[in-house]
Amino acid sequence: QVQFVESGGGVVQPGGSLRLCCQASGFDFSWWPMMWFRQALGKERELVASISSKGNRVNLADSVKGRFAISRDNDKSILYLQMDNLNVEDTAVYYCTTSAKKDWGQGTQVTVSS
User: Is the separation of the CB atoms in 77 and 104 below 8 Å?
Assistant: First the structure.
């Protein structure tokens, strides 16, 4: 079955960096556009970044443009999110999924705190 295992989260100070990874399995990863979402406590899940199946087109939410980058390794079925210059508003659980948004992993917690 379709599975996503997110990792790389943690506690970081404002201005710090993290690199999230999402190991996908159970489907043809290279065929699907992929997305990173996040959900802060008490808020709705929001789209952070998306990438085309070949990785040649990306979109970022306005709130993370210039700070985050999305990429993928189709040979390894891994999706990445490089997060730089983090701020407290980035604190959330981060999830990866396909553009179908049908299956979800457990997510990885990112906490930005001084």
Answer: no
Residues 19-77: pLDDT tens digits? Answer: 999 999 999 999 999 999 999 999 999 999 999 999 999 999 999 999 999 999 999 99
Do residues 4 and 23 touch, judged by C-beta distance below 8 A?
Answer: yes
Residues 58, 67: contact at Cβ < 8 Å? no
Q: What is the DSSP string of 25-58?
A: ESS-GGGS-EEEEEE-TTS--EEEEEE-TTSS-E
